[in-house]
Structures are given as structure tokens and as C-alpha cells.
Amino acid sequence: MIQRPRGTRDFTPEEMGARRYYESMMRSVAVSHGFREVQTPIFEHTELFTTKSGPGIVEEMYAFKDKGDREICLRPELTASVIRFFVNDLTNYPRPLKMFYFGQCFRYERPQAGRYREFFQFGAEIIGSATPEMDAEMIGLAAAILERTGLKDYKIRVGHIGVLKGMLAQAGVSGDTALPILQKLDKKMYEEAEPLMKAAGMSADSIEKIIATTKVTGPLSVLDTYGGEAGEYLKEVFAILAQFGFRNVEVDLGVVRGLAYYTGIVFEVDAPKLGAEKQICGGGSYSLSELFGGEKVFSTGFAIGFDRTLLAIEKEGQTAPKLLVDAYVIPVNDKTRMKAYEVAALLRRNGISCDLDIMRRNMGKNFKYADAIGARRTIIVGEKELESGCVNVRDMSSGEQKMVPIESLVQHLKG
Ligand code: HAM
Fold first, then answer.
1. Statement: residue 71 has pLDDT above 80
2. Cα(202) to centroid of ligand 1, in Å?
């Protein structure tokens, strides 16, 4: 038997029903916030991702040469693609330019619960200018989407990369030397961050201070001791979020984010019930367009890990409504078969979801099947009823049965 590739999944009809339900919910929240959908290719030039992150990232991607000897990769995320698209074609759009996307991403990772090689992201990006409003709008959209899904146990942790970057710069560490330190601090790998900071010439006192800062979490008041530009900016973002009325948002100065492009606000959302792979969303403001040959613009965005969010929702015991057919049409015998097809077509044409017997089964087996697919009603097309232009409509949950003229069948079912 041929198996699917490692780290990928197939989705059953039930799973797809739930996935589409939550996907369209997220879409409608994004649209209600003034965002419009974009789509970019699933594969890109590898260079799009190595430009900022360096050649090391190739190890984590599905990268290959195509038949024209071009370096190509399956996208590991969509932010770089959206900004490339902006630089290529969208610079004349009015700003702020608010876009959202949904699609699969590919990362060559070790698969485990909640971590796949093919996964889906629902994300959004805004291109405009550096105002706290833009960042608050972005965090606000992520919060609104999660709130709408009905998920309860999650926390939105917001920080500013400028706080730690500023402390490092004060200690004389910046640029390429700062990046690996920030990445270790992001993962709270203090034992590995410390020697890097020592090697960069930092004093024991400033190392201690910076480690303490990564542990600062809590309500807005924890920022009282962090004046500075970054702290002030964060306070303004929180003030706007408070007006929007979001819960589950707190300060966390230890959020650094693994991706190399962030420059300002950074935020992550955890759903603790998921265990090790609990991060369901990540984002922040960043600078990429100038790297792709465009003007330098302020941009901010996030991506929700769609698969993990659904896992978290499921863990909380929530289920999406099942998609059931409204009616299943059963001819009682071969003589009424043709009429049954006509009745099914009438219902379908009038927007009633309808299935019918295409296996030439007997009544008993047809009822069993209608029950198995969860049809709300069966429409029984019998010879005697047809003589008076009627069919029998049976409600599958109550068992109640009623003769209905075909000419008022649509109205009856819709009512
Ligand atoms: P990211 O944190 O790398 O950010 O990914 C966003 C989310 O995708 C994660 O929080 C996680 O839920 C999900 N995710 C990542 N890897 C996997 C995986 N292997 N399996 C399942 N889910 C996964 C970004 O991708 C940025 N582009 C976000 C962004 C947008 N920043 C600014 N704009």
C-alpha cells in the first residue's frame, strides 16, 4: 500500500466539514475588519526566504531545483510572499493596505502532535506607517478571530523586540552578534545565551538584567519600570486594545519570535491544553520590502496555525455543526425511479441539499443509508402517491410522515 508522505495528513469528509466551517468563520471576521483576501503561489524562489534568514533556513524547507535549474522551495510561511507581491504589483494600492490569506505551508520538521510538514495558516498583514493603531488593529484581528471560534483557554502575550534589542545595544551588542543571542533568549535557553553574551563582551550585571527582562510578564503595570521608546509604544498599543475590549492579552517582554524579520511589536498566542506545540499564533511588525527591491514600508502581521487552533478547540470539547443533507429521495420501485430523479433535481435547483438512491437499492437499505449519512428527511416516491401528484416526506428524527404535493414540496421543505 502506498502511504502518504511523513508529516502530511488526509482529511475525512467530517474533518473537512469542520475545517471549512472554521475557515469561513475566520474569513468573515477578517472581512468585517476591512481586510481583503490575497493568494500567492505555493512555491517560490528559494531566495525569497534566504535573503533575510540566511542559507541555513534551506535545511528547514522543502527546497529543490526545478527542470530549468532554478532554486525553488515550497513556502514555509506567507509573509515574505505577500510582501514580494506588494513590491511586485501592489504599491499603488491605497494605504493602509490590509490583506489576509489562508493556505498551506511546508516545513521540513520532525513531525509530532501538532507539528506537521504540511500545515495551514490563516494570516493577515497590514502595510502602512508605524502607528500603535496599526499594531493594535493587527493584534485585535487575531484576538477577534480566536474569540469568534469559541476557544476559551488561551493567552495573547505581547512584547516589543526593541526592549531587549535596546538593552543589548546599550551593552554594545547589535546586528549579527545580537541575532543568535535573541534567538536563544526567545527559546528561554539561558544556558546557551549566557556564553554568547559573555563572548560579546557583556558584563555579568547586564547579562543578569537582560535575563530578568525576558521573564517580565503580566498586566500593563509591569511596564512601569520600562520607560524608553519601546515601552511607551507598547503602552499605547495596550490602551487601544483595552478600548477594543479584548480579554486574554498580557505583556511578555520575553517574546522575541524565531523568524529574523521582526523590528517592533511581537506577539504570540498559546493554548496551554496543547502541551509542547502550544503556540497557535505568532506575529509582529517587521521590515522586508526593501530587501525585495521595494521602498521601505512599515508592515505588521500575524499567522494563526490553523491546525493547532482546531486541535485546541477540539480539546475543549467544541464541535463544528455537521453538514447534513436536507433530503434523501427514495423511489419505492423501478416504476417511480425516473420521477424520483425529477424530484431530486427540483429540490437541488431550488437550493435544497439533496441526495438520492443511485445504487438501485431496496427501501430498507435506502432508509439505512439515509440514516447513516444523517439526512434530515427522506422523500419517498411511491406509485399511489404519484397518482395524485404527491410524495411522502418523512422526518428522520421524529419518524413523522406526511403526504405533500410535488408542486408545493420546495415550499414545504424550506418552511
Ligand atoms: P510562525 O510563528 O512561524 O510565524 O508560524 C505561525 C503559526 O503557524 C505558529 O504559531 C504555529 O501555530 C503554526 N505552525 C508553525 N509551524 C507549524 C508546523 N510545523 N505544524 C503546524 N503548525 C505550525 C509565521 O509564519 C509568520 N509568517 C507570522 C507573521 C505574519 N508575522 C508577521 N506576519
1. yes
2. 32
The mean of the pLDDT values for the chain is 95
> What is the structure's pLDDT at 256?
86
The Å distance, Cα 302 to ligand 1 centre, comes to: 8
- Residues 101-125: pLDDT tens digits? 999 999 999 999 999 999 999 999 9
Please tell me whether residues 233 and 285 are part of one structural domain: yes
Per-residue pLDDT at 247: 74
315, 348, 378 - which closes a domain:
315
Report the 3 state secondary structure along 313-344: HHHCCCCCCCCCCCEEEEECCHHHHHHHHHHH
Separation CA 173–CA 168 (nearest Å): 5
Domain boundary among 288, 315, 342: 315
Please report how many Cα atoms fall inside a 13 Å half-sphere around the Cα of residue 136, on the Cβ side: 17
Mutate-to-test residue for ligand 1 from 119, 257, 266, 289, highest number of ligand atoms within 8 A of CB: 119
Read off the pTM: 0.93
Q: Whose CA is nearest to atom 20 of ligand 1?
A: 115
